[in-house]
Design brief:
This protein is an alpha+beta fold and 534 residues long. 27% of the residues lie in helices and 23% in strands. The strands form 7 sheets. Strands 1, 2, 11, 12, 13, 14 and 26 form a 7-stranded mixed β-sheet that branches. The protein starts with 6 loop residues before the first strand and ends with a helix.
Length: 534
C-alpha cells in the first residue's frame, strides 16, 4: 500500500526553491492538504550540506539533472553543460549559496512588463526582508528574524582579500553589501548558510512547514502530464518510483519545476505552441506559443591563473597535511575550513554598453575552477568569473518527443546580438586587468586561461571556445500581456483554470544577479495570491 493519498487540495510539482516556499505559504491554512512531487531523491547527503564540497554537486551526480544544451552556433557549436538541482531543495541544494536579490530597478521593470505594480520593488523588498535572517546587516533594507539564514563568510582566503584590494587599486569603490543601497563596487558575497552548513529552501521553508502535518512530499516522482478536463487542471499523471499514478487536485495544480521542467511539463500536457506539440506527437489542448520561449541566462567567461601561495583552495603536496586536517576536523567536529564557502569575492561593474546600473557581475574563487568543477588541476590557482547581466539574446525550451523521460531541447541562443558580445568582451578585458593589478604581483605566476591575453579579437575567440552558463535560466513561462506571455499577473496559465506556474520561468526578465533569492520572493507572493483566491 502506498504511503500517500491520491487526492489533495493542492499538488505542487517540484520541491525546489519555489516549490518549498509555495508549500509553506499554502500550509498556513491547516484545513488544506498539499502534495509536493519531486523527481529527485532526498537531500540528506554531506555533499549537499558541506560548502567545500560544492563542486561535487555542481559538476554532476545524482542530485543534478545534468542537462546539455543544443549546439550553440556562436560558441563554436559546443553543447553546454547545464546543471540544475534534482533533489529536495532543487537548485538551492547545489548552488554556490550566494544571497543576491538583483537591482531594485529589475523589479520595477517586472511591474511594468507584467502590468501590475504589485510586482515592483517596494513589495519585493518587504518579502525579501520577511524571508531574511541576516547575521551581519540590519536596518531598512534587511531582515533579521526570517527563516532564511544569510551570513557573511567568516574567513576570507588571503587571495580573496587581494582581489578586493585590486578593486581599490583600479578605483572601484568598496561595497560590503550588494543587497544594500547600491550594487556597484567590490566586496565579499553573503551566503545562504546557517553556521557551517548550507541552508537551502527546503531547510528554510519546507521542513518547518511539514511540522504542520498537512504536507505530503513524494520523491522519485516524475510528472508525466497535467490532467485537464474541460479546460481545467484536475490533477497529475505521475511516475512514482516506476509506477504510473493518477493524483487529483481539488483546488489547483502548481508547477514549480523551474525554467526547464515547467515549460516541458506544460508542453507534454498539450499546452504550448501547437506546431511544436504536433511535431512531438502531443495533442494540442491550448495553443500558447510563449511556452518555452523567451529563455534568458547569464553567459560567463572565467580567467584562471596560477599563483604562488599554498593558501589557495585545492590539491597539492604542500597543502596535503592541511587538506587532511580539514577533512578530519569536518568529519569529527563538523566545522573548520571545509565548511567555508569557496566562492567568496564579488563585484558589480559596468561595460561600455551599460545603462544606469552595473551590467557585469564578477565572482572570485581563491582556487582553480575549471569546467564547472569537472576538471581538477593540481597546484595553486585563482579564478575570476565575469557574466553579462542583461542579455538581449532569447532562447527556447522545446520537447522533442512525448516521452516525459526524454530531456527537452535546450537552446539558450547565446550571443545572438552584438550587444551581448560587446558587453561580455568588455567584462573579459576588465577581469584580466584586475588580475594584473599590483595587489597580485607577488602571487601571480602565469595565465592558465586565457593562455596569453592578446587582442580583443583573441578574447572574442576565447569566449566562443570557453564561455559557460552561470546557472541562471529564467522566463520560459513569463508573466505579462505580450504575445509570448504565458501567465497572468497571478501566475495563472492563460486559457486554463486551476493551473499556475510558480518558479523562475515566471519572471518576465532576468534579474541583475543570482536568481535564487528572487525565485523565493516570487514564490512567496504567488503563494499568498493562491491563498487569497481560496
Amino acid at each position: 500500500m502506498a504511503d500517500y493519498a491520491t487526492e489533495y487540495d493542492y499538488i505542487i510539482v517540484g520541491a525546489g526553491s519555489a516549490g518549498c516556499v509555495v508549500a509553506e505559504q499554502l500550509s498556513r491554512d491547516r484545513d488544506v492538504t498539499i502534495c509536493v512531487l519531486e523527481a529527485g531523491k532526498s537531500d540528506d547527503h554531506p555533499n549537499i550540506r558541506t560548502p567545500m564540497l560544492l563542486k561535487e554537486v555542481v559538476s554532476g551526480g545524482p542530485f543534478n539533472w545534468n542537462y546539455e544544451t543544443e549546439p550553440q552556433e556562436r560558441l563554436n557549436n559546443r553543447r553546454m553543460f547545464w546543471p540544475r538541482g534534482k533533489t529536495i531543495g532543487g537548485s538551492s541544494s547545489i548552488n554556490a549559496m550566494h544571497y543576491m536579490r538583483g537591482a531594485p530597478e529589475n523589479f520595477d521593470e517586472w511591474g511594468e512588463m507584467i502590468g501590475d505594480g504589485g510586482w515592483s520593488w517596494p513589495d519585493a523588498l518587504e518579502r525579501f526582508k520577511r524571508h531574511e535572517n541576516n547575521n551581519t546587516f540590519s536596518g531598512p533594507l534587511h531582515g533579521t528574524d526570517g527563516p532564511l539564514h544569510v551570513q557573511s563568510i567568516p574567513k576570507l582566503n588571503p587571495l580573496t582579500k587581494l582581489f578586493l584590494e585590486a578593486g581599490g587599486e583600479l578605483q572601484y569603490p568598496e561595497n560590503d553589501d550588494f543587497n544594500g543601497e547600491k550594487q556597484f563596487g567590490f566586496g565579499p558575497y553573503q551566503v545562504t548558510m546557517n553556521g557551517p552548513r548550507r541552508w537551502s529552501a527546503a531547510d528554510a521553508f519546507l521542513r518547518p512547514a511539514m511540522e504542520r502535518g498537512n504536507i505530503t512530499v513524494i520523491t522519485e516522482a516524475l510528472g508525466h502530464k497535467v490532467r485537464l478536463e474541460n479546460g481545467k487542471a484536475t490533477g497529475m499523471l505521475v511516475d512514482i518510483k516506476g509506477e504510473l499514478t493518477e493524483l487529483t487536485a481539488r483546488k489547483e495544480v502548481i508547477l514549480s519545476g523551474g525554467a526547464i521542467n515547467s515549460p516541458q511539463l506544460l508542453q507534454l500536457s498539450g499546452i504550448g505552441d501547437a506546431a511544436w506539440l504536433r511535431a512531438a506527437g502531443v495533442s494540442v489542448e491550448v495553443d500558447l506559443p510563449g511556452v518555452g520561449r523567451n529563455l534568458q541566462d547569464h553567459l560567463d567567461i572565467a580567467t584562471v591563473a596560477q599563483v604562488k601561495t599554498a593558501e589557495a583552495i585545492g590539491l597539492s603536496l604542500q597543502r596535503f597535511p592541511k587538506n587532511m586536517y580539514d577533512v578530519l576536523r569536518w568529519m569529527i567536529r563538523g566545522d573548520g575550513d571545509f565548511t567555508i564557502n569557496p566562492v567568496q569575492g564579488g563585484a558589480f561593474i559596468s561595460s561600455s554598453v551599460a545603462g544606469d546600473i552595473p551590467d557585469l557581475q564578477l565572482v572570485f574563487i581563491p582556487g582553480y575552477s575549471l569546467n564547472h568543477g569537472k576538471e581538477t588541476k593540481m597546484g595553486h590557482g585563482m579564478t575570476l568569473h565575469v557574466c553579462h547581466l542583461y542579455p538581449e539574446s532569447r532562447g527556447e525550451i522545446r520537447i522533442k518527443t512525448d516521452n516525459p523521460a526524454d530531456y527537452p531541447a535546450i537552446d539558450p541562443n547565446y550571443l545572438a546580438t552584438d550587444f551581448d558580445l560587446t558587453a561580455l568582451t568588455d567584462g573579459y578585458e576588465k577581469v584580466i586587468e584586475i588580475l594584473r593589478a599590483p595587489a597580485f604581483k607577488d602571487e601571480f605566476v602565469e595565465w592558465v586561461h586565457p593562455e596569453k591575453p592578446g587582442t580583443r579579437d583573441d578574447l572574442v575567440a576565447d569566449i566562443r571556445q570557453r564561455a559557460e552558463t552561470l546557472y541562471h535560466p529564467t522566463s520560459t513561462c513569463a508573466m505579462g500581456s505580450g504575445e509570448l506571455a504565458v501567465l497572468n499577473s497571478d501566475c495563472r496559465v492563460k486559457g486554463v483554470k486551476s493551473l499556475r506556474v510558480v518558479d523562475a520561468s515566471a519572471m518576465p526578465r532576468l534579474v541583475g544577479g543570482n536568481t535564487n533569492a528572487p525565485t523565493m520572493m516570487l514564490a512567496d507572493k504567488a503563494g499568498e495570491m493562491i491563498r487569497e483566491t481560496a
